[in-house]
Every structure is written in C-alpha cells, then in structure tokens.
Amino acid sequence: MADTFKALVVTETDGKAAVAFKDLSLNDLPPGDVVVRVAYSGLNYKDGLVLNGNKGKVVRKFPMVPGIDLAGTVEESSSPLYRKGDVVAATGWGLSETEWGGYTQKARLKADWLVPLPPGIDVKRAMAIGTAGFTAMLAVMALEDARVKPGKLPVLVTGAAGGVGSVAVALLAKLGYSVTAATGRPDQQDYLRGLGASAFVDRAQLATAGRPLDKELYAGAVDTVGSQILATVLTQVARGGAVSTCGNAAGIDLPTSVLPFILRGVALLGIDSVFCPAERRREAWRRLAKDLPLDKLDAMTEVVPFGQLLDRSAQILKGHVRGRTVVDVNA
Ligand SMILES: NC(=O)c1ccc[n+]([C@@H]2O[C@H](COP(=O)([O-])OP(=O)(O)OC[C@H]3O[C@@H](n4cnc5c(N)ncnc54)[C@H](OP(=O)(O)O)[C@@H]3O)[C@@H](O)[C@H]2O)c1
Fold it and tell me: Whose CA is nearest to atom 10 of ligand 1?
C-alpha cells in the first residue's frame, strides 16, 4: 500500500527481544515536529548489540524501531527550523534506546535532534560518517582542546579498523598528526595505511598489563575499546598528553592506576556522542565537512541493502566489519 512503509521493529516478550520487518503508517510513528523520508541509516557497534538480542539492554522501551542514525529529506515540518525538502541527519539523542530510530523508511522526530547537512556531505556520506564518524571527530576535537598537537610523537588509535577507529585515523592524518594504528587484524594494515596510518601495533601487545608507567610512546590516543588495552595505553602516553575514551569493544572495566594522571599529568577525556550539546554537534559536523577527506571516507564505506542488515549486524559484534557500513533502507 502506498501509505505504508517498511521499518525494522524490536519487540520484547518474556524478557526476550525479537526483531522483524513490519509495514507501518505515519499514524504508527511517535509524536514529533518533523517527518523525514529516510534515505540511509548506518551500522554501529551499538546497533549490533540491539539487533542481536538487545545485548547490554540498549533498548529500554518496546516496541522500538532501532538504528541510532538516519539521514534523509524533510517531508513535513511544523518547526520553524526545517522546511520540506531540507536534507538532514540525526545521531544519538536516545534513538534506538528510548526514541524510535533510523531503520525505517520514514521517521517522525523532534526538530532539535536534527542537524542540517553541511555543504559537501550528502545523505549517503552523512551515514558513512554516522555516529561512529561523529564520535571520532568529537574525540579528535577533545585532543585538540587538551593541546595535543602534531609533533614528534604519534597519536595512537585503538580498534583502528572499526568505524570510529577508521574515521579517527583519516582525520588525524589529514590534520598532520603521525598516526599509529592498534589493530587485531594485521591483514588490515594496507587498508589503514591507505587512510593515513604510518605505524602499527598488534592489539594483543596492549591486552596484557605491563608496568604502571611505561616508555612515553604517544602524544595522545583515541581509544575505542576500553578495558586492559586502554589501561596499557595510559601508561605509554607522554607527559602532558591526553586520551579520548569513547568505546568498550574490549570491555567496560579499566584496570589502571593513578600514576599516569598524577606523575605525567595525562588526561583521560570522556566522549559522549549521544547527548552532545547542539552547538558542539554542529561544530563537529562543520569540522567533518572540512577535515575528513571524502576519498578516504568512500574507501572505508560499504553500502548494504536493508535486507542484509541483520546478517551484517552479527558480524560487527565479532569485530569482522571493517570501516563503516551504510544501510540503504529503500533497497
Ligand atoms: N561514546 C560514544 O558516544 C560512542 C559513539 C560511538 C561508538 N562508541 C563505542 O565505540 C566502540 C567502537 O564503535 P564502532 O562503531 O567503531 O565499532 P566497530 O566498527 O565494531 O569497531 C570496533 C573495533 O574494536 C576492535 N575490537 C573488536 N573487538 C575487540 C576486542 N574484544 N578487544 C579489542 N578490540 C576489539 C576491532 O578493531 P581492530 O580489528 O582494528 O582491532 C573493531 O573493529 C564501541 O564500543 C561503541 O559502542 C561510543
């Protein structure tokens, strides 16, 4: 039927989550002031958790349309901020947690959750960036704010072949930093070199505890994995350096000591992309349009049809997905 559209819906029965495609109509959508015709969504680690049994209890309200990202064209707006035809994206703000998200051909949202796409970034590239790329930009901006500058010592990126990691490598290299990539996939070194990495560390080397203070190897780091790897990285950051921490692909624990902080003045900078304030959000998108090389973005991106999303989502939890996956919700 012409007035229905396809969406993925997560339901819960007796504590068990189930995911299925459904036909919805505008009447099924939650309240909001803007209706967006969605062109693309993306696949992030958090989406993998939701689509594979709601691991980590990301979804807190059922039924839920999952997908933490979306980009498309405004179809209806009762907000003065947007007009029909505007091209927009949304990331975070509780999408796929407490608010319906982007795995749908139409969405109704609050205008405050949307960002207008900056010139040069179309809907497909906006989702190639997605939450992962936006988070990478926030992580790099946090290092800049902490005065980590391009210089003799490199910046380390952990989980480098993943979504956040790949964008962080490309951004840092473009900004003139020398980038060392920590990866568990040595077969991805050529790919990472193509994005701008100039040296590599096997992630296994970082996964066991060393001395409380090690050799000062890095000016700073973008960490996407947490746990022992982040703890080891902290011991290897030079005096006055900083580490942006955004992820937990290796675990939520952090078995560190206070020594890197009190003897070297190392700063640990938390990154939360979900509730990042609107002004910082717009600044990050402006920076992405300026500083992320589009050829590198395209090289790290694969587009999959809506029907392949579930298969792909299982792969991301196994660490088998490289770079960014864009989901074409109309294919
Ligand atoms: N704070 C925020 O606002 C925010 C926003 C976005 C993402 N995140 C988090 O950031 C992390 C990365 O997200 P993503 O979308 O980039 O995920 P992703 O594409 O799956 O990348 C994660 C990468 O981590 C590495 N990895 C996977 N399993 C690991 C393990 N057991 N031990 C050590 N490393 C492992 C892999 O890189 P290699 O193969 O190169 O080793 C993998 O590609 C996730 O934890 C996600 O939830 C947080």
Answer: 247
Domains of the chain: 4-116+300-328 (3.90.180.10), 131-270 (3.40.50.720)
Ligand 1 atom closest to the CA of 132, numbered from 1 = 6
Across-strand partners of 16? 13
What radius of gyration, in Å, describes the C-alpha atoms of the chain? 20
Q: Is 160 in the pocket of ligand 1 (CB under 6 A)?
A: yes
Please state, for a pLDDT cut of 90, what percent of the chain lies above it: 97
Which atom of ligand 1 is the closest one to the Cα of 270? Answer: 1
* Residue 87 β-bridge partners: 73
Output the pLDDT for position 53: 93
pLDDT of residue 2: 55
Give residue 46 CA to ligand 1 midpoint distance, Å: 9
pTM (predicted TM-score): 0.97
Say if ligand 1 is within 6 A of residue 273 CB: yes
Query: Best mutation site among 164, 188, 192, 324 for ligand 1, i.e. most ligand atoms within 8 A of its Cβ?
Result: 164
Interacting residues of 233 by C-beta distance below 8 A, sequence separation 6+: 156, 158, 182, 206, 218, 221, 223, 243
pLDDT tens per residue, range 208-265: 999 999 999 999 999 999 999 999 999 999 999 999 999 999 999 999 999 999 999 9
Task: Tell me if 58 CB under 6 Å of ligand 1.
Answer: no
CA end-to-end span of the chain, whole Å? 17
Cα 49 to middle of ligand 1, angstroms: 12
Ligand 1 atom nearest to 181, measured from its CA: 40
- Give the pLDDT confidence score for residue 174 in this predicted structure: 98
Q: Is the CB of 317 under 6 A from ligand 1?
A: no
β-pairing verdict for 34-43 and 324-328: antiparallel
Supply 32's token pair.
């909001």
Q: What is the pLDDT of residue 246?
A: 98
Task: Report whether pLDDT(103) > 60.
Answer: yes
